[in-house]
User: Fold Wzz/FepE/Etk N-terminal domain-containing protein from Shewanella mangrovisoli.
Amino acid sequence: MSNELNQYMKDARFPQVQDDEIDLRELFAVIWQGKWLIIAITAVFAIASVAFAILQPNIYKSEALLAPASEEQGGGLSALASQFGGLASLAGVNLGAKGGTDKTQLAIEVLKSRQFTSEFIQKHNILADLMAVKEWDRENDKLIYDEDDYIEVTNTWVRDVKPPFKPVPSMQEAYKEFSKIIVVNKDKESGMVTISIEHLSPTVAQQWVTWLIQDINKVMKERDVAEAHRSTEFLNKQIALTNVADIKTVLYKLIEEQAKTIMFAEVRDEYVFKTIDPALAPEEKAKPKRALICVLGTMLGGMLGLMLVLVRHFMRKE
Assistant:
């Protein structure tokens, strides 16, 4: 009688432990019974991931390190704003309380803009290299185009697309595609800017980065020169309208600052960005990470096979 009572008390205290042991044993048994299915699914995923990784073309990344070159400008105008801002306002000229916008950040935003990208693509005639390249011939350093989209011999687009799209890609399509391959980063501590391009061809990636730096410097220079000329014309008109000697002195100093801006722009090609480390044609690919693809594909197959075996077992059990 006492033995039965002890056994009853033991079962009452540890029922969950016994259930857990039974569940674990059952779980391992189910997995063991379905091991061949798990192995088969894992093998299929492993083979598929290897094939997928092999079929992926190499992507090369070229980048350049730049230093802001615009800090030297604006200092004189800022000093005038602090000294003669109130006086100049009497003549209807607003010098501003701050030193102006951050030209480096402005240049980065212009570089990312739709207008700049569209003009860049059209200026350098790179639409086909952006939208229709299938692979890169390493031996001849030549791009091979997808003939279903573009015929190189006749320079003809033959894409089969539905409206509103047309065989010739629009600048909106080109901008979306270009945004995927360009990266512009600014280091918060040092202020250094990195521009990088990814492409099937390393030489194309290098060339595009070089062109981007040249074009953004040119665009920002032209913007500032045009603004300086407009400011000079306005200031000359203000001088003609006032007879106050002190105000005329301020306005002449402002004209002098605009002249400095124009001179600075004319004598420097690297107007906004100075190239610290120029873009190179990379010898090694940036992606795909084929080993990682294979590992992840195999792991996914193993987990899927395991889940399938367990779900099938518990569905039969119910």
Residues 202-241 form the longest helix (40 residues). Residues 23 and 29 are 10 Å apart (CA to CA). The beta strands are 60-68, 133-137, 142-145, 150-151, 156-157, 182-186, 193-199, 273-277. The mean pLDDT is 83.
